[in-house]
Amino acid sequence: MTVVLSPAHVQDIAELRQLYFEVYGHGYPVPLGSDPVVMRRLITEGTAHWLTARAYGGALVGSAVVVTEPGSRIGKLVGLAVHPGHRGGGLASRLTGAVCEEAFGTGRLDSVYATVRVVTAGPQAVVVRNGFRPLGLLPNAVEVDGCETLALFARYADGVLDRRAPVTAVPERLSALLSAASTGVGIDYAGTRGAAGAVGAAVGVRETAGGTGTTRAEPIELIAAPGFVRRRFLELFPRAGDRFFPLHTPNAVLAAADGSFEAYADLDPVAGSCALVAVHPRPSAVAGALEGLMATVTRAGADYAEALLPLADTEALEVFLASGFVPSALYPAMRRIHDRLHDYVVLSRTSRQIDFRTTAVSPLLRPYLGAYLSAWTSTYLPLHEVSR
Predict the structure, then answer these.
(1) Cα dist. 240→111, 233, 234, 304 in Å?
(2) Measured distance CA(371)–CA(361) in Å, rounded
(3) More confident call, 60 vs 119
(4) Is 356 helix (H, G, I), strand (E, B) or coil?
(5) What is the pTM (predicted TM-score) of this model?
């Protein structure tokens, strides 16, 4: 059956919402497929590449979007949907390839990433066929039809990976993740050595039977006022170079009662997730307070939290690792600074039990699963249990 791809228009919004409902039901946690105001803005403001697929006769049967933001040189593939009656003919792959080619064709992107559901193997195969490389797993990252794990993939513009800035040493707990990335992305991390961290004693971290904890007891105050939070965020981080968490806008701030730090978060209770976008005055300022911060986030409805840190920022990485965050994904060449590109690490923490029995982890992702399990074990199992 002939299917024609074309850019999305405002008049398509009602049909697009119906498509996403037919594909995902009421469980789709992204406003792109449900909120007409957000959809109109993406279509009209020029920050998204949005393609639709129409079958012979005009019925809208598919959609795919790459969203971008000025300055970050990163896009995200979202909203890939194919009507159930048109699956199995390669339309998802065709949409993915076409929308990515359009996005990269502008010359303004270094990479496009996608967070892919792993309840079936199909979505993973679609992105791999279109040049995406596996970067890691995000366990319990989103509430869709129950709590689901996502896989992180990225596709790069030509030559980007060749301009990476080298990193000579990382915390030892990241070694397995780097090894998985060497296989999955094809990057040689042989020159990056793992070093045992000593941050625990410095920041007052104590060992517990269930994992890690902290000695700082000051309460964490949550302010969920999006307009105020955005203004305050821009006051503290006025330069674009001082903030980096692409395609995430903070809508809440978690502040220490003693004023020692302010952590800006993109909090989404519908999806059950929280991205820690930035910390003032610096990421390591949350040392000793992440346990309280996580308790506050959980009470606000987010069972999953993640942080994005430079691979070269050993101090900040050690702080988060000492507080129960687990290295989950590695994004090589994520950020361009002048003519060099810098690697970043996604660290995550979940308050729910992780269950991988229902996941369809493809062979490309299995090294990352092994790396995550190794890091989780070293974080949450006592040493005498691990050695048995």
Answers:
(1) 19, 11, 9, 27
(2) 13
(3) 60
(4) coil
(5) 0.91
